[in-house]
Amino acid sequence: MKLSTALLLAMWLSPAAGQDYTSVSQGVDHVFQVTTFSYPGFKGYVKLWSTPRMRKAKGKVWIARESATTTIDARVDDLPPAPSFDAALNTYVLWLISPEGKLENAGEFVLHGDGSELQTTTTLASFGMFVSAEPNCLVEAPSQFVVLVNAPTVNGIWAPGPSAIINYASGQEVFEKVE
User: Fold this and answer.
1) pTM
2) Topology of domain 2-177, per CATH?
3) How is the chain split into domains, by residue range?
């Protein structure tokens, strides 16, 4: 299992080295990992890249951490209504994931046209972010319909940190820590 995880990580990182992608879909066919960052005393932004499920979607997240709480202001654009994937999906959720794989439902994006904004906070000091289409905003685990994932850059500078790997199993995503 660890060897397969390492191979997936190597495959994902290899084509991206030294290139400035604006979309996960330009570098890989599927989302395999979410890069996490540590945000002590941080003020800045992280872009959200589109995935193969939603090639035109985009987003940007402004992050400020000056104490034990991190403030997150997220903006997404070019998202169609979630039911366009499946009639059972009704909304989009912002997920935070720690390097250890702990998931946190950070809130719902309520679309106004094809965009939305979300303001939230977290006590996680290190985390990655992704957006998935969900049946409702109260779900405790993400669906397989990941549409945006944070870029491995902070303020436009390549700065990958520890990664949480996404393994597709039994029709749902399972997150594991990379060792």
Assistant:
1) 0.75
2) Immunoglobulin-like (2.60.40)
3) 2-177
